[in-house]
Amino acid sequence: MSLLVTGWVVAATICISLAILQLLIWMRRRTEMSYLIFSVAALAAAGVAVAEIRMSGATSIVGFISGFKLANYCVATLLIALTWFVVSYSDSKQRWLAWIATGGWLLCILINASRPTGLALAEVTGLDSGTTFWGDTFTVAIARTDATQTLADASAFVVLLLSVQTFLTMWRSGQRRRAAVLGAIGLFLAIALVHTTLVDFGIVASPYLISYFFLAIVVVIGYGLGTDVARTSVLSDKVRADEQRWRSLLEGVELLVVGIRADGTIDYVNPHLCTVSGYPARELLGEHIRILLPESEQERILPKLERVAPGDVETSFESWLQTKSGELRMIVWRNVLFQGSEDRSWEVLGVGADVTAQRQAERARDQALEEIAALKSQLEEENLYLKEEIQLEGAFQNMVGDSEALKYVLFRVEQVAHTDTTVLIQGETGVGKELVARALHERSQRSEGPFVRLNCAALPANLVESELFGHVPGAFTDAKSRRVGRFELANQGTLFLDEVSELPRELQPKLLRVLQDGEFEPVGSSETKKTSVRLIAATNRHLEDEVRRGRFREDLFYRLHVYPITVPPLRDRKQDIPLLIEYFLPGINTRTGKSIQEVPSSVLRALEAYSWPGNVRQLQNLLEESVIVSKGGVLRLPAYFGEERPSTRSGAFKTLAQAERDLITEVLAATGGQVGGQGGAAEILDLHPNTLRSRMKKLGIFPKELASSRP
After folding, report:
1. What is each CA distance from 192 to 102, 197, 214, in whole angstroms?
2. Is 268 in contact with 259 (CB distance < 8 Å)?
């Protein structure tokens, strides 16, 4: 067997092998039409190699024409398959070029079948022989081509144009690997088209080698599809691993988790739901969700679940759950829609928190408030709550006020302080969230342990991980010694994370792991450390909005949002302003060397009429400025406060540096000394944080002093 024929046999064998392999893959993944189309193309390429063997060894005109017509059939079939492979592989929506190429090659097939000499050849007058440069002989026809050759070349050119177009589209969209496969198809197709044309016109004395170019195309496509299969396999393993991790989380979390199909049947329950409901899992799986609903709730809840089928369901609602023993438990549900992996139908995963005890406590609170209101109407001039809350005086000595809003906060603190439950403190900047956190710590069983705080917005993102978990020497540049992280420092105590919404997203899974397992690794270390910490988090943002925007992990939100406490802004408890003034004035007098004792009623009215965007911290700063500008023993407000405005005379103007310093100081006071991050002074002033720090250093402004003066 000559070397030339051996090459064709090898090419045909490779093409057939790849066709069978991809066909087997398609039989397991029927939705992936690219594999089936490729199998057809590879078999056609093998047919071209067989036809070239017949033509190169033909001893008669009839034998040569037979092989030539077979080659034309196979080439047409291959290029039609190649056309639709390009469309399928690139997911192209513009298919007009594909239809033009397909129409052209179908016409070529009809011409090839209807003419004795097949496509492109008008007449074959004889045979001749040629010799390769290594000595193999091959048969060539003495013939002339006709206009049908132009049709074949034009159809092939359309396929080439389609591959180039899809290559450019995918390359620009960033799908470089798939674009490379399409580019290789176009390259080898162009070479094959040029070589065949040169042979047909007698410019190149060579046998038809188109099968080798088709072999190259088949190998490139086979490699691309094989890479897709490998990547899919790796992704499948990752999906299974992720599914196992999520299942482990759902199995271990102390929340009720239930999966509901579109028809209302239950297909998943976690152990905690079984514990709360009293049903074993085998009695719930496959049953309708109404088994867990009392009759009084079914009419209200079932219509909500019926919207699962069209892909719509309420993200959250409350409902009663009826246990096996008939007990009713109030559950707050958070619902997530997803499509099943098998039939792609919509399902809902409901995650519920049992708030029965909380609702009972709220009802008790409402009854208590009604009783207090009745007593207050009888003894209006007395402080009725002094005796009722004297036990709170030590823990809440810095939380000044007599408003119902503040008392509700203290009530919530008393409810949860003695537990290890994670608490999320919410409220605007300056309302005193850290004071609530300290009160929780001091009233807890961990009061003998440390109280450690970290402002997540006050540190660069690359240092937060080291601050939380510590680091070992050499963990990063300038890490020359071991650093103990806040979680380790707070062991057996309380860790307070202020502005937790500013925590970088890449660190949120690590925080979640510590909350779940009590384990962490310092930066640069593989050693796992254990800690027992009660976490209290605070934020001035709506974390649910941050979750929807993708800036905060949903699973971490649910971990933090176990027991929320909202601290009211000062504008909602203006009746506390006189008490706050009475509390702040002695300290301000001491610091300023003044002796302000009298607060006129006009000053009180002006303060109570103000909206206080900076809350208690702004009030404290304003009082200090007022004490400084006041004369004698009577408190006077600065001229700009209220209806009065600073004088516009030239002598009253400040220098640019003075005005800049006052503005920066006022903004820093409102943000509690926070320079960078969301809601920081740099964002408010529309400056880069480093630019603002440079100006502060030049003007002698120190944010720590401002932060230390917060209430």
Report:
1. 19, 9, 8
2. yes
Q: pLDDT tens for residues 116-144?
A: 888 887 788 888 777 776 777 777 778 77
State the Cα–Cα distance between residues 255 and 697, nearest whole angstrom: 50
- Are 3-232 and 389-568 the same fold in CATH? no
Q: How far out from the chain centre does Cα 204 lie?
A: 59
192 and 78 Cβ atoms separated by less than 8 Å: no
pLDDT band at 642 (very low <50, low <70, confident <90, very high): low
Average pLDDT (385-398) is 40
pLDDT tens across 620-632, in order? 899 998 888 888 8
Instruction: Give the tokens for residue 12.
Output: 């045909």
If you average pLDDT over every residue of the chain, what do you get? 80
Q: Is 497 helix (H, G, I), strand (E, B) or coil?
A: strand
**What CATH class does 255-354 carry?**
alpha beta
Q: Residue 434's closest CA among 448, 449, 455?
A: 455
Q: Is 274 exposed, middle or buried (0-12, 13-18, 19+ CB in 10 A)?
A: middle
Q: Which fold has domain 576-708?
A: Helicase, Ruva Protein; domain 3 (1.10.8)
Pick the CATH number of 3-232 from 1.25.40.10, 3.40.50.1980, 1.20.1070.10, 3.30.930.10: 1.20.1070.10
Nearest 5°: the CA angle 704, 706, 711 is: 115
pLDDT > 70 in the chain, percent:
84
Q: DSSP characters for 421-475? A: --EEEE--TTS-HHHHHHHHHHTSTTTTS-EEEEETTSS-HHHHHHHHH-B-TTS
Q: Indicate if the pLDDT at residue 383 is higher than 50.
A: no
Q: Where are the domains of the chain?
A: 3-232, 255-354, 389-568, 576-708
